[in-house]
Design a protein that fits this description.
single chain, 307 residues, alpha/beta, Rossmann fold, N-(1-d-carboxylethyl)-l-norvaline Dehydrogenase, domain 2, binds NADP nicotinamide-adenine-dinucleotide phosphate
């Protein structure tokens, strides 16, 4: 019999992912802590549940897509958590981006009750979630990866079994190390152009055809130039991801100096009250550091003469 599925956490990423599973014909039980968030899913046939425990009672395979490490712990181990509703043989697939160390602990706690777990964080953003083209980085047993693969195929295209429990989360941290520094580099390049009195949009256009081109430049260059910071991927989540990266660096005794600088920018952005903006807002800190504003119509050379 086809397994029934559960989905917990219906935010920017979770909702379109759950919709893709529903539209692929799977029987879906959903939970969001704010009930109105479930309406889009119930309208296409999903069943709303009052808690993660209820989802776990109904579904054979339970996906979680919530915010941070403590949230996944609460959804799995809390009073109304998955662990109290699931039995032996069920599979929990956490697709949130969280600590690899805690992921391993959660896999052990679930394993003691015969419940399987995979960590399967994603990259590709809201666009990838909507289109079902996410990159999925999976940690856990091969048997469980094989069991989950048909469902992952409704969510993503590049699906890689990285290794044991926690390995998916480590891969995702590597992704964020690259993403955060590329994002910073895009902001720096645009500010340099603006400060030099050269049209940054033209620079962006030229660079997109050359060796320095990247998906980040393509997506975030125009957004930074227009100060379009509608999320997307929220500053507070990127802040959380670099906290995880810094924690791993600390635990392993390795230096990640480039990532550490971006982590400080994100600390500043949080302090400025911008946690709910898209993470392209990182350029706001860079603008302040150099007193160069990408949306300013006054050429920076004139601004500087007035100083
Ligand atoms: P989001 O829009 O803020 O959604 C998170 C959802 O989780 C919200 O609906 C929230 O409920 C729910 N939630 C949080 N804590 C919960 C708890 N303790 N119990 C029950 N529900 C809880 O965030 P998102 O952008 O979808 O991101 C979700 C995860 O994917 C994060 O780990 C993020 O780092 C990762 N991710 C995001 C992107 C992206 O581009 N957005 C890309 C890759 C990976 P409420 O609505 O009630 O707050």
């Amino acid at each position: 019999m086809t397994p029934s599925l559960g989905f917990i956490g219906l935010g920017i990423m979770g909702k379109p992912m759950a919709l893709n599973l529903c539209n692929a014909g799977h029987r879906l039980f959903v939970h969001a802590r704010r009930p109105p968030m479930m309406i889009t899913l119930t309208e296409v046939g999903a069943t709303a549940c009052s808690s993660p425990l209820e989802v776990a009672k109904q579904a054979d395979i339970i996906f979680t897509m919530v915010s941070d490490t403590a949230d996944v712990e609460q959804v799995i181990l809390g009073d109304l958590g998955i662990i109290h509703g699931a039995g032996p043989g069920k599979l929990v697939i956490d697709m949130s981006t969280i600590s690899a160390t805690v992921t391993r602990r959660l896999a052990t706690s679930l394993g003691e009750r015969g419940i399987e777990m995979l960590d399967a964080p994603v990259s590709g953003g809201e666009t990838g979630a909507l289109a079902g083209t996410l990159s999925i980085m999976v940690g856990g047993k091969t048997t469980q990866f094989d069991r989950a693969l048909p469902f992952f195929k409704s969510l993503g295209q590049n699906i890689v079994h990285i290794g044991e429990h926690g390995a998916g989360q480590i891969a995702k941290t590597c992704n964020q190390v690259l993403l955060s520094q590329t994002l910073t580099a895009v902001g720096e390049a645009l500010i340099l152009a603006k400060a030099a009195g050269v049209e940054p949009a033209n620079v962006c256009k030229a660079l997109l055809g050359g060796f320095a081109s990247s998906r980040i430049l393509e997506l975030y260059g125009p957004r930074m130039l227009n100060h379009d910071f509608k999320p997307g991927f929220k500053v507070k989540l990127h802040h959380k991801d670099l906290r995880i990266a810094m924690q791993i660096a600390h635990e392993l005794g390795i230096a990640l100096p480039g990532t550490a600088v971006v982590a400080q920018y994100l600390n500043a952005l949080m302090g400025m009250g911008h946690g709910e903006l898209d993470n392209g807002a990182l350029v706001l800190v860079q603008e302040q550091l150099s007193n160069v504003h990408l949306t300013d119509s006054v050429p920076p050379s004139q601004q500087r003469e007035k100083l």
